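Customer escalation, tier 2.

The customer says the design service returned an amino acid string that "doesn't look like it belongs to this structure." They asked us to rerun it and document both sides in this ticket. The original structure tokens are below, unchanged.
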């Protein structure tokens, strides 16, 4: 038999710890939805396997009983039903006792009502069997199956049945019998069409079974019946996100927040939806709010905000977030790994190597995610690229040229100006330091160099096409890395109207071709030897 009470226990939504260099982390994988019964008891204890097996048997028996009436009313007990119901009532009375908050109290009230209906119709009163008792003074008696009127909810038979099936569904759901909970909730809704709690819980059960479209339909019904229930909007937003309906999901999260659901979970989920739409600024604002609320996972919030700021090219701010995450949790391997990725993107090879080595050390400790393979791979790539960069360190000679990048055309093509570079050389060190304007071009220079802009294509790399998300990210990255800065390059050929070349950023000699590959924005078409 089941004994004890039930509860309403919201689950904390934690960002995923998956580490992916080329995409945003999946924040929804561990998202938990909220369930609520019609009344909120204190604690839902652990029940044994036999208890749930017994409850499933009771549910199956009651479903078969209710299906006898095609009009969706409560049927009458037969004589055989009466014996079974009476035995069930004895078990329920022993388990529930006087507790008003026991999870099986609604079931006990329904079974009691079925028995009362049968006895009222088929069991004669004592005065009918013994008329002489009617002439005696009345004595106070309590029917064996009845409680004092003040303790009996004023509900119809159908309402009692609906609440009984709801309570069974709720217990089975929390006992990980989700598939069995669904018919219990379905029957509760069939009996009581305005039972918004049952529609809501049915949506949660279907979400758990990955029936996201059906779950949304159930949440729609719950909202139709109770349009101020914030958790219904919240959970509908989660289900919509699973179907990649991110704009609609954001609208639901907005509504949940407007209705007072001021939790870190809802801001995390809205940030995820915004990020998947490319709205990184909005996602950062959401994580600002998460950090303000100071959840238990605040270090993860800093880490995720760092990822978002990296996407926006806010590298200093991103580094500060990773560093703060590490300050809060010194053994936070993921934060070291992400900071190492950003340092590598910025060409700070030694700092990147240090962070990767620390992440690897921490990843091998118990209790950390298994980042070992990932970090070892990053260190291997870092060493390979550093070796290639050293091997391809530009040597001054007549083939080497140093120009200024005036425009990034796409992820592998630059527009440079040798004349701007020449005029830049005329500046004093102080003028270059303070960013003074370049000397004006003379009319003679304009006439002498009508085609002063030159296009350079990075040798041996392939970049995603313009217009694709990855292609646009590559352009943004290369702009931040090179636009307006000097580069040194060694031409190796001509392709259409472009010079094909190995390119280094000047004066730190970061090998641009390799850094585009290492940062995840390009692939080698023919890796350098």
């Amino acid at each position: 038999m089941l004994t004890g009470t039930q509860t309403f226990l919201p689950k904390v939504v934690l960002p995923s710890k998956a580490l992916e260099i080329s995409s945003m982390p999946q924040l929804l994988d561990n998202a938990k939805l909220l369930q609520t019964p019609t009344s909120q008891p204190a604690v839902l204890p652990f029940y044994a396997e036999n208890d749930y097996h017994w409850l499933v048997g009771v549910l199956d028996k009651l479903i078969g009983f209710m299906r006898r009436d095609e009009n969706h009313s409560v049927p009458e007990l037969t004589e055989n039903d009466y014996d079974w119901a009476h035995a069930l009532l004895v078990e329920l009375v022993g388990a529930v006792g006087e507790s008003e908050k026991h999870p099986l109290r609604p079931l006990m009230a329904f079974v009691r009502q079925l028995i009362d209906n049968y006895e009222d119709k088929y069991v004669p009163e004592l005065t009918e069997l013994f008329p002489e008792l009617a002439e005696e003074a009345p004595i106070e008696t309590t029917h064996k199956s009845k409680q004092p009127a003040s303790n009996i909810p004023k509900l119809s038979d159908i309402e009692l049945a609906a609440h009984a099936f709801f309570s069974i569904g709720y217990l089975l759901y929390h006992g990980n019998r989700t598939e069995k909970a669904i018919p219990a909730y379905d029957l509760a809704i069939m009996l009581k069409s305005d039972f918004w709690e049952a529609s809501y819980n049915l949506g949660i059960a279907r979400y758990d079974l990955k029936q996201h479209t059906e779950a949304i339909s159930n949440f729609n019904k719950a909202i139709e019946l109770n349009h101020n229930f914030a958790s219904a909007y919240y959970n509908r937003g989660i289900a919509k996100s699973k179907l990649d309906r991110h704009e609609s999901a954001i609208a639901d999260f907005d509504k949940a927040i407007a209705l007072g659901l001021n939790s870190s979970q809802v801001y995390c989920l809205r940030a995820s939806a915004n990020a998947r739409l490319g709205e990184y600024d909005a996602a950062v604002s959401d994580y600002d709010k998460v950090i303000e609320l100071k959840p238990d996972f605040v270090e993860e919030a800093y880490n995720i905000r760092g990822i978002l700021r990296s996407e926006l090219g806010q590298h200093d701010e991103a580094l500060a977030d990773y560093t703060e995450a590490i300050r809060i949790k010194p053994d936070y391997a993921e934060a070291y790994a992400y900071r190492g990725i950003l340092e590598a993107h910025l060409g700070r090879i030694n700092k990147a190597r240090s962070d990767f080595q620390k992440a690897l050390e921490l990843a091998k400790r118990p209790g950390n995610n298994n980042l070992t393979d990932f970090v070892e791979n990053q260190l291997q790539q870092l060493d390979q690229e550093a070796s290639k960069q050293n091997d391809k360190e530009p040597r001054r000679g007549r083939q080497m040229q140093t120009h200024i990048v005036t425009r990034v055309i796409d992820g592998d093509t630059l527009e440079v100006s040798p004349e701007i570079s020449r005029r830049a050389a005329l500046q004093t060190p102080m003028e270059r330091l303070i960013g003074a304007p370049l000397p004006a071009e003379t009319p003679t220079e304009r006439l002498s160099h009508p085609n002063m802009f030159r296009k350079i294509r990075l040798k041996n790399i392939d970049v995603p096409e313009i217009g694709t998300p990855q292609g646009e990210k590559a352009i943004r990255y290369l702009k931040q890395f090179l636009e307006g800065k000097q580069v040194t390059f060694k031409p190796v050929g001509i392709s259409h109207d472009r010079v094909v070349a190995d390119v280094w950023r000047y004066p730190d000699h970061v090998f641009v071709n390799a850094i585009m590959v290492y940062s995840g924005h390009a692939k080698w078409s023919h890796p350098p030897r």
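Tier 2 assessment: The sequence is consistent with the input. The mean pLDDT is 79. The longest strand covers residues 401-410. Sent an explanation to the customer and offered a walkthrough call.
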